[in-house]
Write a structure and sequence with these properties.
- The protein is of the alpha/beta class.
- The chain has a single domain (about 5-205), classed as P-loop containing nucleotide triphosphate hydrolases (Rossmann fold).
- It is about 55% helix and about 10% strand.
- It is built from nine helices and five strands.
- The protein has a five-stranded parallel beta sheet, with helices on both faces.
- Helix 1 (about 15-30) packs across helix 9 (about 190-205) and helix 4 runs parallel beside helix 8.
- The model has no long low-confidence stretch (mean pLDDT about 95).
């Protein structure tokens, strides 16, 4: 069993990092953590009336099992909460502990390779153009019955990119040693195959 092999996958919303991460984890038999769900769970609690700091400090594993975490309102609340240093600090230990579990782990988020796991054996930064990501997100939201327009979703994507990249604490950016993958013109099978190829090469090395 492999001890502490960590794959850090970062990138903006709707770039495909979650889908790639899940597929990679399944392929290699690694545990997977969508760290964005931690912040979405905090965002959901904020919408219920908690402060962001209180929500992060009292977060339970059961809070991650909630269909409402995928709504646009929760995503917006999560992005705002993630800019608060005290919120990020409250969630760091959980993420780092998960990353070091026996058998290997894949974590996806926005600061995994830069802050949470700077010593990860593999770092990927998955991105795509704002227009492509907005189209993907719009299709996802429309399929779930949300009443949104493509223009609204694009504006939300651009606002979130600006907020995530400009925040003082753990801004969204590629780690210096991350492999960058632009999925704008890739289908999901191609993106997954490329990620698996990169990880397999690093494991052999």
């Amino acid at each position: 069993m492999m001890e502490g092999f960590t794959v850090a996958i970062d990138g903006p919303a709707a770039a495909g990092k979650g889908t790639v991460s899940r597929a990679v984890a399944e392929h290699f038999g690694f545990a997977h953590l969508d760290t964005g769900l931690l912040y979405r769970a905090v965002g959901a609690k904020v919408l219920e009336g908690m402060t962001a700091e209180e929500a992060a400090e009292t977060l339970q594993a059961a809070d991650l099992d909630n269909d409402l975490l995928r709504t646009n309102a929760v995503a917006e609340a999560a992005s705002k909460a993630a800019a608060i240093p005290a919120v990020r600090a409250a969630l760091v230990d959980f993420q780092r502990s998960f990353a070091m579990r026996a058998g290997g782990a894949v974590l996806d988020g926005r600061d995994i390779g830069t802050v949470i796991c700077p010593d990860a054996q593999v770092k990927l930064f998955v991105t795509a153009t704002p227009q492509v990501r907005a189209q993907r997100r719009f299709a996802e939201l429309a399929a779930s019955g949300e009443d949104v327009t493509l223009e609204q979703v694009l504006a939300d994507v651009q606002a979130r990119d600006a907020r995530d990249s400009a925040r003082a604490e753990a801004p969204l950016k590629p780690a210096q040693d991350a492999e960058q993958m632009d999925t704008s013109t890739m289908d999901i099978d191609t993106a997954v195959a490329r990620a698996i190829e990169l990880i397999a090469a690093r494991r052999k090395g």
